[in-house]
């Protein structure tokens, strides 16, 4: 039990340092163009990664074809310039429908 | 350079708006985390405290999983590795945050996957208010969801039945498409990241796989270097 509490405290501290150290140390420093290009590309890289890793899960155990039609519908809704929440709602509705079939 | 493209109100409001969608996904995931932690022998109160003070989905799952095998230290190590992605994310946000080092460190705590991504402007700047707003909505949803999961331990099948498991991927997809519409030259980077993610997820913990996806951003640096040589 004490070990569990200490583990939680440790994780909280680690997170605080991770998220705080860059902003505290770097401030508004400008980077070399190459480094800056990499930082600019990070959101897209991590977002694509989040999407794939989230969909597949560890050892691909979350892989589930029934989410594909839902995501495709969200893509079509996005293309039709629907707002973000609307696209997500459509994905959920289509996924439920596919699973009920 | 527009470091604060939004007005104070519009930034927060945009953050709340995107935060609500992310919060629904976070809530559903948190319910399953709470149930998972209690099933693995964690007291309900500690699971709730963990969510409140660490607010980090996959790292929390990793810690609980490792601890149930008796490896608390290994669990902390895995969680630390999984969350290491927050270092580059927060560092990339640094120039858009305000105040001295201490205030910046605290503002950096708003860095959470969904919020951080949603707060990216098309011109490469970051809307800090949007990030704060989005995180502020998700944090109570994450904590409350954990409490409900830990105290009532519902069946996790309900996530699937109600299509809740598609919320996060759908959000990530829409945010990614938005980002690519603004900067189409990043399409190869997104494809490379997706490929790395798919392969890495099969053999590595999710957080580590995610960290590896960041490597595809190196492509942008290579391209810039080539561009400057010409």
UniProtKB/TrEMBL annotation, chain A:
Ranges that cross the membrane: 6-26, 38-56, 76-98
Organism, scientific name: Diaminobutyricimonas aerilata
Descriptive protein name: Branched-subunit amino acid transport protein AzlD
Keywords of the record: Membrane, Transmembrane, Transmembrane helix
Q: What is the lineage of its organism?
A: Bacteria, Bacillati, Actinomycetota, Actinomycetes, Micrococcales
Q: Which domain of life is it from?
A: Bacteria
Automatic annotation (TrEMBL), chain B:
The subcellular location is: Cell membrane
Q: Which residues cross the membrane?
A: 20-38, 45-66, 72-94, 131-152, 158-177, 189-222
**InterPro entries named in the record:** Brnchd-chn_aa_trnsp_permease
GO annotations of cellular component type? plasma membrane
State what protein this is by name: Putative branched-subunit amino acid permease
Q: Which GO terms describe its biological process?
A: L-valine transmembrane transport
Q: Organism classification, top ranks?
A: Bacteria, Bacillati, Actinomycetota, Actinomycetes, Micrococcales
* Family statement: Belongs to the AzlC family.
How does the entry describe its membrane topology?
Multi-pass membrane protein
Entry annotated with the keyword Nuclease: no
So which domain of life are we looking at?
Bacteria
Identify the stretch annotated as signal peptide in this record: none
This protein's UniProt keywords: Cell membrane, Membrane, Transmembrane, Transmembrane helix, Transport
Entry annotated with the keyword Coiled coil: no
Organism of provenance: Diaminobutyricimonas aerilata
């Amino acid at each position: 039990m004490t070990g569990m509490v200490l583990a939680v405290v440790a994780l909280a501290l680690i997170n605080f340092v991770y998220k705080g150290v860059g902003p505290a140390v770097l401030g508004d420093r400008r980077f070399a163009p190459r480094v800056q290009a990499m930082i600019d590309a990070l959101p897209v890289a991590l977002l694509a990664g989040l999407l794939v890793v989230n969909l597949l899960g560890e050892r691909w155990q979350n892989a589930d074809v029934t989410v594909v039609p839902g995501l495709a519908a969200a893509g079509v809704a996005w293309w039709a310039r629907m707002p973000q929440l609307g696209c997500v709602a459509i994905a959920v509705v289509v996924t439920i429908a596919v699973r009920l079939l | 350079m527009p470091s604060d493209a939004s007005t104070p109100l519009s930034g927060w409001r945009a953050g709340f708006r995107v935060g609500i969608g992310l919060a629904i996904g976070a809530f559903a995931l948190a319910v399953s985390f709470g149930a998972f932690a209690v099933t693995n022998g964690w007291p309900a109160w500690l699971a709730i405290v963990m969510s409140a003070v660490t607010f980090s989905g996959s790292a929390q799952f990793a810690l609980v999983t490792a601890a149930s095998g008796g490896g608390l230290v290994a669990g902390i190590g895995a969680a630390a590795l999984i969350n290491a992605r927050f270092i580059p994310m927060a560092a990339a946000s640094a120039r858009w945050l305000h105040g001295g080092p201490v205030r910046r460190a605290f503002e950096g705590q708003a860095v959470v996957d969904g919020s951080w991504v949603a707060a990216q402007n098309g011109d490469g700047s970051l809307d800090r208010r949007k990030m704060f707003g989005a995180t502020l909505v998700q944090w109570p949803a994450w904590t409350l969801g954990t409490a409900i999961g830990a105290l009532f331990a519902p069946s996790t099948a309900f996530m699937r039945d109600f299509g809740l498991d598609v919320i996060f991927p759908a959000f990530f997809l829409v945010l990614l498409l938005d980002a690519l519409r603004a900067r189409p030259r990043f399409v190869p980077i997104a494809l490379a990241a997706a490929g790395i993610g798919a392969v890495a997820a099969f053999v590595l913990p999710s957080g580590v796989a995610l960290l590896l996806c960041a490597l595809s951003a190196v492509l942008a640096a290579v391209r810039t270097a080539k561009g400057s040589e010409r």
